[in-house]
Amino acid sequence: MWDPQQYEHFRDARKRPFFELLARVPVSAPRFVADLGCGTGDLTLTLAERWPGSRLSGVDSSEPMISEALRRPAPAHVRFELADLARWQPDAPLDVLVSNAALHWLPGHEALLSRLVGLLAPGGVLAFQVPANFEESSHRRIDEVRALPRFAPALASVRRGHAESLAFYEAHLSGLGLSVDAWETAYLHVLPGEDAVLQWLLGTTLRPVLAALGPGEEQAFLDTLRPLLRQDYPAAAHGTPFLFRRRFVVAVRPS
Ligand SMILES: C[S@@+](CC[C@H](N)C(=O)[O-])C[C@H]1O[C@@H](n2cnc3c(N)ncnc32)[C@H](O)[C@@H]1O
């Protein structure tokens, strides 16, 4: 379902939140670090540079993404694994658990976060970032096309991404005894190229939708969506402005 090349298209804009998240992780020498939903692994490898003395696991449930990660030259203390992060079990408690732009694909954040906190060592840090763009025009337009009789039956069981509120994350994680730093940032990306917002969505949000439609209906879906996005996101001479909100949480387990 995932296409590493399409995902890498807007790499710089997608990287920035990862570094803004990691800048708030107050750990100098962790023993064991995991990056859950690590994708193509390039950001995981920046963790290996930051913490050269730590063991590092990158985990992703997509075969093409993990294959891409495995192709990268990596130091011996880095390992990439194909697994569902909701079930993945590390062989030792984690000092840092990072998840960038992945948890919104999973349902049930209350139970999921309780489970992830249970994987942390005393003093361990859970740091995650999720898109919070689901009410923006781009997503509403996708929903509108999904609901058309031509596409709705094939897409009925395809989940939308979902993020809880900052208040929810703060309340749940502090209820589990962690100290929580939570914030939201809105990025105004100016995307280059033609149909830039569609190209952006093709890297992430549209992947499960197109996979469920299959090649026959994929083109018809995109042909219906494209003019709606052009209307809502007109291209300027210098690019297409695209507002994107993201939520960040860094939570520290007591020692
Ligand atoms: C938007 S990409 C983010 C990749 C990487 N973290 C980054 O910031 O570049 C989302 C990734 O989450 C992965 N993912 C989604 N659901 C997952 C699950 N249940 N278990 C593991 N990985 C998952 C996808 O395969 C995809 O590689």
TrEMBL record:
Residues 33-124 form the Methyltransferase domain. SUPFAM superfamilies: S-adenosyl-L-methionine-dependent methyltransferases (SSF53335). GO terms for biological process: methylation. Signal peptide: none annotated. Coiled coil: none annotated. It holds the Pfam family Methyltransf_25. It comes from Archangium gephyra. This is Trans-aconitate 2-methyltransferase. PANTHER family: TRANS-ACONITATE 2-METHYLTRANSFERASE, TRANS-ACONITATE 2-METHYLTRANSFERASE-RELATED. InterPro entries: Methyltransf_25, SAM-dependent_MTases_sf, Trans_acon_MeTrfase_C. It comes from the Bacteria. One of its GO terms (molecular function) is trans-aconitate 2-methyltransferase activity. Keywords: Methyltransferase, Transferase.
